[in-house]
Amino acid sequence: MQVAPEVLEALEKRLPVVALESTIISHGFPYPANLECALTAERVAREEGAVPATIAIVGGVVRVGLSRSDIERLAAAKDVAKASTRDIGTLVALGRTGATTVAATMAIARRAGIRIFATGGIGGVHRGGQSTMDVSADLEELARTRVAVVCAGAKSVLDIGRTLEYLETRGVPVLGYQTDDFPAFYTRTSGFPVDARLQDPGEAARVLRVRDELDMPGGEVIANPIAPHDEIPPAEVEAAVEAALRDADRQRISGKAVTPFLLARIHEMSGGRSEQANKALVYSNVRLAARIAHAYQMR
Ligand code: PSU
Ligand code: MN
Questions:
Q1: Active site residue: 155, 220, 275, 279, which one?
Q2: Which of 90, 112, 148, 257 would bridge with 220, disulfide CB 3.0–4.6 Å?
Q3: pLDDT of residue 299
Q4: Is residue 35 a contact partner of residue 75, using CB atoms and an 8 Å limit?
Q5: Does the annotation count 36 as an active-site position?
Q6: For a pocket test of ligand 1, which of 100, 259, 279 has the largest count of ligand atoms closer than 8 A to its C-beta?
Q7: Which domains does the chain have, with CATH numbers?
Q8: Nearest residue CA, atom 11 of ligand 1?
């Protein structure tokens, strides 16, 4: 594992650090929107006084903190493996490159000593998951790895009710940032309640500290709704989601290809609108994560 000098120094000095994932770069947006998103996310973290640590596996090395040219290469590369937790060892051993999912990014962040991570949306229980058993490894990682994930909830391609049930069973707190309702990525609400509402970054940081002190296993979901002016009308989202799910079914997409396929279809169908919303919510999550990281380090 190679931690960038800037990240290492920040960790040693107990300055705020925010981990960022790379599946969102390789499989979440088309080029060059992915490059813009990755670079802007890093800039937003810096504007808020945090050091960004984008995580990926590059040529068999687990990298924590990428340079601009690393990010450019990753964004432009085709056929980069989507790396979940189970793939980390294999990719490193075989000298390959992989873009880390939420699960893999959490696993690596924890090993590097990073407590807070920002992304767009988490994976979850897929619709029909009770029979296909398609449940994202993100949920398992949240159950065992103490990293807080700041996200805009989960996309409605997923079964949000079952995703929340699963997180409850596995002991993962689902905290709403200034909301009582778990957000559904493009929309501010899903109709399902969060466990607790947090009013400011200080409250969030306090929850993380207390959980550290009590040695509670696992991470936390900090759900930050998309800003009202970036929200997409629920009916529009649902229509795109239904169509994407039908296409996936017809083309018999399965396993780890499901999520990237659905994301790409939704982006295609909404003509750039969902891409815009997706970028905006990522930046908002990075900003909040940086503020929480700052409050967390202040004690
Ligand atoms: N959901 C999104 N955008 C994403 C992802 C999920 O709205 O980019 C990515 C994340 O990297 C997440 C992964 O960890 O997809 C989940 O994939 P799976 O469902 O195969 O576990
Ligand atoms: Mn899956």
A1: 155
A2: 148
A3: 67
A4: yes
A5: no
A6: 259
A7: 2-297 (3.40.1790.10)
A8: 101
